[in-house]
Design the sequence.
């Protein structure tokens, strides 16, 4: 009888890839985890219990067939594991690196619930795809037949790129428009290199280009090109702009120099550290934490990216203010742990009340909080503790309070593009169809600031509907 290759969770402990020493990694922007060795990857994949009802799969937004590609990895069938992983996920190696697995697949692993420690799903996924790239298994799109229809995609972030890939594989002609000089959106300029090295993103962009996707960069819709012009040039348009308008923060002194937005800070850092670009506001110190007392306001993953970036830039000190406690923060607990190891100090149950220093910030006035009764979301509401204010010295304050949608109907001069009361584009669930004929919308511009994996899911779902719509038009025209 053949030896059982799986269910090794009883005899084999959970192990992550080796993590570089905190005092070494906090000085560079390289990824912090080493690669899995082949034997270790197989060993960890073999811990999967092969559940009859795989909660890891059902809690993955893409419903990746996780148990099967874990089994294929454990038994050394790596090319098949790659093909299976790629079949449901356009960018598995990116999701393996940046998905909050502790809240999704791994957080719902059955053996985790039984006290044995979750399967390291994300790191195995990363290993599968890195192996596939090394062996040349990842190929550009090569459709069986070319179609005459053309689709324009506004936004080269994860949702737009996922849609572009699916459309090209179906033979549709695709042009992607983006305001930045490089494709990738937040994958390129929002997420730091220590979580996602940029060559990982750029090789996917090149794969899309090699497969026939056309990119038009440095293109601001409404300025360099009108939305109507794009609609005229294509049979359909997908809006995948994401949400880049930063939530602001008021209070006394909020307009002082030295108080900056997270997206501007991270973009400048990524351009400088990962691409070697000359960024004026980085060079003159405006968006550079070197030698400064840094305070980051916020508790999400963007805040974690900011504090860990500031450490690497050589900040004198880095503190993070968050109005709830550690258990109630929205960001990944794994990221908090990494930040603490690297020298970040978290001030839980604190919120800014204003800023000191006049024209240039010198301190944040901090209020201490306590958790009260639950609010509408079920989370305990922070309440102010009277008389608890104190001043936290700061030379650089980074606001990482989340993002809101830009006013696209106004910016683009398209009043017929319906939006919700939150400013997100109104689009049909799963299909992405909007109120405008042949115009679709996906990702954060529809659902609000969310995860990369959800943007990929939206892009793939939208293309399925769009292709059906194109086929229906072709059928009608042929009658």
Sequence:
């Amino acid at each position: 009888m053949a030896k059982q290759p799986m269910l090794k969770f009883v005899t084999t402990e959970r192990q992550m890839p080796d993590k570089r020493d905190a005092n070494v990694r906090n000085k560079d922007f390289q990824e912090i985890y080493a690669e899995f060795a082949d034997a270790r990857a197989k060993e960890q994949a073999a811990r999967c219990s092969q559940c009859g009802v795989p909660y890891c799969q059902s809690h993955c937004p893409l419903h990746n067939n996780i148990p099967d590609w874990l089994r294929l990895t454990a038994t050394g069938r790596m090319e098949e594991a790659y093909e299976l992983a790629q079949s449901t996920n356009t960018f598995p190696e990116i999701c393996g690196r940046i998905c909050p697995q502790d809240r999704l697949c791994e957080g719902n692993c059955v053996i985790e619930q039984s006290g044995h420690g979750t399967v390291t799903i994300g790191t195995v996924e990363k290993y599968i795809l890195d192996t596939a790239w090394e062996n040349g298994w990842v190929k550009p799109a090569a459709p069986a037949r070319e179609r005459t229809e053309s689709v324009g995609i506004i936004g080269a972030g994860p949702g737009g790129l996922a849609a572009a890939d699916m459309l090209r594989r179906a033979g549709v002609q695709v042009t992607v428009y983006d305001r930045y000089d490089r494709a990738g959106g937040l994958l390129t300029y929002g997420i730091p290199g220590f979580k996602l090295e940029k060559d990982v993103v750029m090789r996917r962009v090149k794969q899309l280009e090699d497969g026939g996707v056309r990119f038009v960069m440095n293109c601001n819709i409404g300025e360099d090109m009108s939305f109507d012009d794009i609609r005229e040039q294509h049979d359909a348009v997908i809006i995948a702009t994401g949400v880049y308008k930063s939530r602001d923060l008021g209070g006394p002194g909020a307009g002082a120099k030295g108080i900056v937005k997270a997206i501007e800070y991270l973009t400048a850092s990524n351009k400088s550290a990962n691409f070697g670009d000359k960024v004026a506001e980085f060079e003159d110190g405006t968006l550079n934490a070197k030698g400064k007392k840094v305070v980051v306001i916020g508790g999400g993953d963007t805040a974690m990216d900011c504090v860990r970036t500031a450490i690497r830039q050589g900040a004198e000190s880095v503190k993070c203010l968050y109005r709830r406690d550690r258990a109630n923060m929205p960001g990944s607990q794994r990221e908090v742990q990494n930040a603490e190891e690297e020298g970040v100090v978290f001030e839980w149950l604190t919120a800014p009340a204003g800023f000191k220093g006049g024209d240039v910030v010198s301190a944040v006035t901090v209020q201490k909080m306590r958790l009260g009764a639950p609010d509408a979301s079920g989370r305990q509401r922070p309440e102010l503790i009277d008389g608890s204010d104190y001043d936290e010295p700061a030379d650089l304050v980074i606001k990482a309070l989340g993002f809101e949608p830009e006013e696209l109907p106004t910016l683009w001069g398209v009043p017929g593009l319906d939006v919700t009361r939150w400013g997100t584009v109104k689009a049909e669930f799963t299909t992405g169809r909007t109120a405008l004929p042949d115009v679709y919308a996906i990702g954060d511009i529809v659902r609000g600031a969310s995860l990369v994996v959800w943007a990929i899911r939206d892009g793939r779902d939208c293309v399925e509907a769009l292709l059906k719509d194109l086929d229906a038009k072709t059928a009608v025209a042929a009658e």
About this structure: DSSP finds 19 helices and 16 strands in the chain.
